[in-house]
Amino acid sequence: MDAEVDGILIAAHELKAPLAVLRQLALSFEGVGEKDERIRGEMVSVSERAIKQVNDLTKVRRLEDGLFTMEPVAVRPICDDVIKELSYLFRFNKRELFIKYSNRSQLVVANRELLRGVIYNFLLNAMHYSGAETRSELIVCDKSDHVRVSVRDYGPALPVDVWREMKRGFIEKPTSIAMRPGSSGLGLFIATRFSRYMNAEVGAVRHRDGTSFYVDLPKSRQASLF
Fold first, then answer.
1. What angle is formed at CA 188 by the lines to CA 184 and CA 190, rounded to 5 degrees?
2. Using an 8 Å Cβ cutoff, are 106 and 223 in contact?
3. Which of 45, 122, 137, 184 could form a disulfide with 152 if both were Cys (CB 3.0 to 4.6 A apart)?
4. Is pTM, for the whole model, over 0.85?
């Protein structure tokens, strides 16, 4: 693994302990008013998301060990699980999330944990990059011998250099994304590395009014048994 990326992963791992302390401190507040309670809830939510991304980064480092088993996985329940976790964040930031399932093939070959990480990071990106009162879209559909999970946002245009890296199939390292404030490209870095491990094709489509990020997962032949 590239030494610079490896350094990023090590630094991220060191951040896990203070983030956990921050979360615990927020949870320890008692007898606060309604406004303070909302602030406390947001502190807990932010720290938990940061811890989750640190955990994902440690998984990136472990991919080389081949410890993540590939198996037939149902896509929709994983999407439902991620949506349930992030629904509060979308509501809190006044974002709408549109969901459409049209895939007839229910099973794909993937790792449940890694696939969840890909979908989670795509949705988190969409929430951050869409403006207030705008919507994001999660669409699952058949694509030849694959099932495509696509997340569409209506935010600023994706820079051409990032789009080219996505077209290549992976992002080399987390980088800032111009016109997309608050982004380090960390979520996309994680999603592309997880997808590459699962032999899934990842990419992005640039629209005039936003971007669609997608992952194409090979259908499981076990589906024919059902």
1. 100
2. yes
3. 137
4. no
pLDDT in tens, 113-146: 999 999 999 998 888 777 666 789 999 999 989 9
Tokens encoding 192: 């592309």
Cβ-based neighbour number of residue 86 at 10 Å: 21
What number of other Cβ atoms are within 10 A of residue 75's Cβ?
Answer: 22
Find out whether 120 and 86 touch, Cβ atoms under 8 Å.
Answer: yes
Q: Each residue of 21-55: pLDDT tens digit?
A: 565 666 666 656 666 666 666 666 676 777 787 78
CB 142 within 8 A of CB 103: yes
Residue type, 94: K
**Phi/psi at 29 (5° precision):** -65, 135
* End-to-end Cα separation, the chain, in angstroms: 40
> The CATH number of 71-225 is which of 3.40.190.10, 3.40.50.1820, 3.30.565.10, 3.90.1150.10?
3.30.565.10
